[in-house]
Amino acid sequence: MDNALLMNARARVLADLEARRHATAAAVSALEDACSARQWWAEQWPQGEVYVAGLVAQDVQDALLETAGRWPLCLSCEDAPEHALYIQPDLGGPDPVWVCEESGQAIAPLGGL
Fold this sequence. Notes:
The protein is mainly alpha-helical. The protein has helices at 3-19, 25-44, 52-67; strands at 85-88, 97-100, 106-109. Helix 1 (3-19) runs antiparallel to helix 2, helix 1 (3-19) packs across helix 3 (52-67) and helix 2 (25-44) packs antiparallel against helix 3.
């Protein structure tokens, strides 16, 4: 596994956590856990390295749902009920973007919130 890819994934997810003021100790801990798990995963499937960033984001999103609620929330839809963004494509890569759960519109690339 190329550690630069993993560090890039970590930096991108951390940037999005910070952008939405969600970079709490628990969230950063979830990020570290996700990076560790995905490093092992990518070592088992080297062709999957291009998916690591999006999968790390999805792992953090899942972990936060259990402890802090939905993250990241969509800020683009003013009249819709509270809803989240999700990573597209589903497998997380190779170029993951945050997509609105309601409209299906791409909001930002991973790391660009």
